[in-house]
Amino acid sequence: MHKAPRWPDWFQPPPTREILEASVPSSLGVPGISTPAPSHHALILAAHGWRHEPLWTLRDLIDVAAVSAYADQRDLGETAAAWGISRLWRTTERAIDALFYGGRETFPLRTWSRHLRSVRDRTSFEKHVTQVLGSYWGMPPQVATVLAIHELRIRVKPAPGEFWRQRVTRARRT
After folding, report:
1. Is the pLDDT of residue 93 over 90?
2. DSSP of 17-69, one letter per residue?
3. 161/164 Cα distance (integer angstroms)
4. How far apart are CA 82 and CA 79, in angstroms?
5. Is residue 102 one of the residues assigned to a domain?
6. Whole-angstrom distance, CA of residue 16 vs CA of residue 32
7. How many domains does the chain have?
8. What is the pLDDT of residue 98?
9. In this structure, are residues 57 and 49 in contact, taking their beta carbons and an 8 Å threshold?
10. pLDDT range class, residue 57, cuts 50, 70, 90
11. pLDDT interval class at 63 (50, 70, 90)
12. Fewer CB near the last or first residue (10 Å), C or N of the chain?
């Protein structure tokens, strides 16, 4: 539980007031306990997953799929657009469709999120590719390019006190 939705750093969090005002009674059946409306809840879960890593775990996608099943699909798309996370939502939604409902295989599922289909952890290589390229499926291309260059610099340059030859050797071993 958090004080506010855990949102990816590069996005403006949604208005908490909007979420609270649209909340619905919880399925717990306890008077006074509410939960976000299904469309809000699904988007919050999707963004929370991307806060850690894009399309990180199957568990995250199962949660989003379960909650979004109760949401109006048009409302999901409109709210995602209003909150500025259309690309993130579309990528998540398409991954769920491909993994659970026989939808078309997506580029992320064929490349940097292949681990989801076989229910395993990402390899070190997949993790690096995700951290450099994954943002292109969640944010505007201009922002994703800035982040990709930043991540590439971090991953390519030698660590403090390390020479380039040592860095290349370390990269080969990895």
Report:
1. yes
2. HHHHHT-EE-TT--TT-EE--HHHHHHHHHHHHHHH-TT--HHHHHHHHHHHT
3. 10
4. 5
5. yes
6. 18
7. 1
8. 97
9. yes
10. very high
11. very high
12. N
Query: Coil, strand, or helix at residue 89?
Result: helix
Reduced to 3 states (helix: H, G, I; strand: E, B; else coil), residue 14 is coil
The token pair at 32 is 């006074």
Kindly state the tokens that stand for 76: 């999901």
Residue 37 lies in a domain: yes
Quick one: tokens of 150? 């930043």
Q: Give CA 121 to chain center in angstroms.
A: 16
Q: 113-122 long-range contacts, Cβ below 8 Å, gap at least 24? A: 113/54, 113/55, 116/55, 116/57, 116/58, 116/61, 119/58
How far is CA 166 from each of CA 46, 154, 160, rounded to the nearest angstrom? 39, 15, 11
Q: What digits encode the pLDDT tens for the residues 137-156?
A: 988 899 889 989 998 888 88
14: which residues sit within 8 A by CB, 6+ positions away?
5, 7, 40, 43, 44, 83
Stated pTM of the model: 0.84
In a domain, 120, yes or no: yes
Range of the domain at 77: 16-173
Residue 2 has what pLDDT?
66
* 83: in domain: yes
